[in-house]
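Hey, I was hoping to borrow your eyes for a little while. I've dropped the whole record in just underneath, so have a look:

——
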Amino acid sequence: MITGGAFCDDLRLGLWGEDIVIEYLKELGYLVLQTSEIYSVKTNTAARMSGIDCNIIVPDILACRNGKTSWVEVKVKESPVLYRKEGQYTHGIDTYKFHDYLKVQKNTGIGVDVYIVEVVTQKLLCAPLSLLAENVHSSKNGVTFFLRSNFTEIANLEGRINLEEFANQSGQHGTGYGGTRQQVSQP
C-alpha cells in the first residue's frame, strides 16, 4: 500500500478531480465505472489492459448513456501553461500515458475524451483524444502538450472547486493554492 510521497499526492489530486467529473457526468445522466479505483494488488499500479506483449494503462472512467460509451481521462491542472514563444496556453499529458490511451481507443473501438479540471479558471474542459492526436503542439521532457484552444469549455465549476481542498489534495499547504508557477487569470 502506498502511504506517502509525491505519487500519493498526485493520486489524491487525481481522485479529487475524478470525483468532480463523475458528479458532472452523473448529472448529465451517465452511468460511470471509475477504472482508476481498479488496481493490481500484486503491483500496486493503475488499471491496465494486458496482452502477450503489451500492458497499457486505461483511462480513469468508462461512461455510458443511451447506448453510447466513452473512456474519460481526467487531468487536474492548476492553470494552463503559457508557451511564451507563441504566446499561447497549453496543457500537457505524460507522453507514455497519451500513447497508452491511443492504444486503448484503437483496441476497444471506444473513443477517449480528455477532461481538464482547470482550478484557477474553475472551468471543465474537454477534447476528444483523436482531435488532440492530430494537433500535438509539442513534446518535451516526457510530456506531450496541446493548445488549450483545442479544448472546449463544457462547464463552469464555480461552487464545485474549493481552493483550500485543492491545496490539501495537491499537497500544497499554506496560503492560497500554492506553487511557484506564474498564475494565470482567464486565458
